[in-house]
Design brief:
- InterPro entries: Sialidase_sf (IPR036278), WD40/YVTN_repeat-like_dom_sf (IPR015943).
- This protein is α+β, with helices and mostly antiparallel strands.
- The protein has 4 domains: 1-30; 35-153, no CATH class; 163-341, no CATH class; 361-432, no CATH class.
- The chain has helices at 2-33, 45-59, 101-106, 215-219, 367-370; strands at residues 38-41, 71-78, 86-95, 109-111, 114-126, 129-133, 191-195, 198-202, 210-211, 236-238, 243-248, 253-258, 266-269, 280-283, 288-297, 300-308, 315-316, 328-333, 339-343, 347-351, 359-360, 362-364, 380-387, 390-396, 404-405, 408-416, 422-430.
- Strands 1, 2, 3, 4, 5 and 6 form a 6-stranded antiparallel beta sheet that branches. Strands 22, 23, 24, 25, 26 and 27 form a 6-stranded mixed beta sheet that branches. A 4-stranded antiparallel beta sheet has the order 10-11-12-13.
- The longest helix has 32 residues, at 2-33.
Length: 432
């Protein structure tokens, strides 16, 4: 009797084993042969990208994953922006098994028990549904357990950047939240100018001039109660879709802006009062970033960066602690993840994770420029702008610079090289 019971138990065990093995093999084959789009729901691009990164990592863990695809529970990832809606996912996985075919399957490499994998993806979204796809048709490091209804959304919108906001919420102004334009179109015909202590903007090279109400008194006011009509490059935006200046009132500082070609103007107050110094405004697809001088001590200027997606609620952008935020000469947000930051003491740096980590920027000049008057006179990063998808950097001379042509001080124009960290010299031009 005991023998029969043991035999029955063994038969049941074998049957269960084969059923489980069959089921597992089916799952493994489906895993290998049915890659699908990775879909998540999120309110911002930053959250979407991090959710996608986490889903990719966790999808390749557990018993349902074939051994030659299975990774460990510890991983590290960076997601630098590569232009347009393209991002590079750089993973470092601790592998769950010592199987070198894992690296081959992911197109990565193995080293000391870790797998290094890099894939380029394109980010898309419709509403709060986000997904990434590759331009390649072969099997990718993107498989998903997403429900079938989410698969229907994968062929529509394109986005350009990752959101990266600060932590501390700042006070809002009294006006209503607004919907920011997704894109803005700028040309040399769009500018500000002054006449008889009155400030105007034009969108057609001064064929039509539009007065900015109280703009002269607010925008040009300096710390000694005089007025300086020259604004540093990057401190304003003049486009039909969005026109903005940093404005300084008696006891408040904020953004003076128009969303309808100057027909109506609003003032959105920042929490912290500032004073006239260098200022910087960047408009991404989702937010407006403003950097302005907020404190004057021992002869230096301390700068604060705030951002808003509705021009009502402003948040402080938290940079890495070692970033020098005094005597700033350039701040430019290419998207909600990529920021360039230059200061007198800290040098010229960029971050591709919203300011959490910064890396030096390399500037490439030819020998004939490096040897002008015994050295390169173009030492101050001043302004970055984008034209037809290409990024340009303006380098000016410092306050003691005197290199001139035809009685005009000169500045250098550089273009972004193949990497985010590098700009290469193109030409020189008269300062504007």
């Amino acid at each position: 009797m005991n023998l029969k019971k043991w035999g029955l138990a063994v038969m049941i065990y074998i049957a269960v084993f084969f059923v489980v093995a069959f089921f597992q093999e089916q799952r493994w084959n489906a895993f290998r042969n049915n890659p699908v789009c990775q879909v998540v729901q999120a309110n911002t691009k930053r959250k979407a990208l991090h959710k996608i990164a986490r889903k990719i990592a966790t999808y390749y863990q557990g018993w349902q994953v074939p051994y030659d695809y299975r990774v460990g529970y510890e991983y590290d990832i960076s997601m630098p922006w590569q232009g347009e809606n393209r991002y590079k996912f750089n993973y470092i996985f601790n592998t769950a098994v010592n199987n070198r075919s894992i690296g081959q399957n992911f197109g990565g490499s193995m080293f000391d028990g870790s797998m290094y994998a890099t894939k380029t993806f394109y980010l898309h979204h419709t509403g709060n549904h986000w997904w990434i796809q590759s331009n390649e048709k072969k099997e990718e490091l993107v498989k998903s357990k997403s429900v079938k209804k989410n698969k229907k959304i994968a062929k529509k919108a394109v986005v350009k950047s990752i959101d990266a906001s600060g932590k501390r919420s700042l006070s809002s102004s009294n006006h209503s939240a607004v919907k920011l334009p997704a894109t803005i179109t700028h040309s040399k015909k769009m500018q500000y100018f002054t006449q008889n202590q009155t400030m105007f903007v034009t969108y057609d090279n001064q064929k039509t001039k539009i007065e900015v109400p109280n703009g002269y008194q607010q925008v040009f006011l300096t710390v000694n109660n005089t007025y300086n009509e020259t604004l540093n490059p990057g401190s304003y935006i003049v486009t039909p879709e969005f026109t903005a200046f940093v404005a300084y009132r008696a006891k408040s500082t904020g953004l003076l802006y128009s969303l309808d070609e100057g027909k109506h103007w609003e003032f959105s107050q920042f929490k912290y009062e500032g004073f006239r110094g260098n200022a910087f405004i960047s408009k991404t697809s989702d937010k407006v970033y403003v950097t302005y001088a907020t404190d004057e001590s021992l002869g230096t200027e301390y700068y604060l960066t705030v951002s808003s997606g509705d021009l009502k609620n402003w948040e402080e952008v938290k940079y890495q602690k070692k970033l020098d935020q005094s005597n700033v000469s350039l701040v430019y947000w290419g998207n909600d993840h990529l920021v360039y930051y230059a200061s007198k003491l800290g040098g010229f740096n960029f971050s591709d994770d919203g300011g959490q980590h910064f890396h030096p920027v390399t500037l490439e000049f030819p020998d004939n420029i490096n040897n002008i008057t015994g050295g390169n006179p173009f030492t101050v990063p001043t302004y970055i702008y984008t034209n037809q998808g290409k990024m340009y950097l303006i380098m000016k001379q410092d306050q003691n610079g005197d290199y001139a042509r035809n009685h005009h001080l000169m500045q250098a124009v550089l273009t972004q090289n193949l990497e985010l960290s590098s700009f290469v010299y193109q030409r020189q031009q008269a300062e504007k």
